[in-house]
Specification:
The protein is of the alpha+beta class. The protein has one domain: TATA-Binding Protein. The chain has helices at residues 28-39, 89-106; strands at residues 2-3, 18-24, 44-47, 51-56, 69-75, 79-85, 117-119. The radius of gyration is 13 Å and the shape is globular.
């Protein structure tokens, strides 16, 4: 399933709990590192110039999801690959919006960045 989600309007249906987007930008490493530094103040984050992994606790910002969500970003020369692994479909939809809004803040000169999500097919 493809979802041409823009910042702030994530898909709200479906059964997928994982999704990947290839976001076209030549500044992916820069944006990813800025976002990882930003989130490292209150989330578990591991990153370098090429890859960042951010773990969102199940109860982040007052939420009550069944389990954590993990955002993985990989910087390529012309794209930023973004993968979200969530515990339930509504959490995935929520995290798509969170990631897009936050990346757009750091990519304000290019914003809104186009996110074309490819949801993983469930079982």
């Amino acid at each position: 399933m493809t979802d041409d989600t823009q910042a702030g309007s994530p898909e709200t249906g479906g059964t997928a709990t994982s999704s990947t987007a290839q976001v076209p930008t030549t500044s992916g490493s820069k944006y990813m590192q800025q976002l990882c530094k930003h989130w490292s103040h209150n989330l578990e984050v591991v990153f370098d110039a090429g890859k960042g992994v951010v773990q969102f606790p199940r109860d982040a910002r007052g939420a009550e999801w069944p389990d954590k969500a993990v955002v993985t970003m990989i910087a390529h020369p012309d794209t930023l690959e973004c993968r979200i692994d969530a515990s339930v479909p509504p959490q995935l939809a929520h995290m798509k919006g969170v990631l897009a809004r936050h990346l757009d803040r750091f990519a304000f000169r290019e914003a809104p960045l186009p996110f074309t999500w490819e949801d993983a097919v469930s079982g």
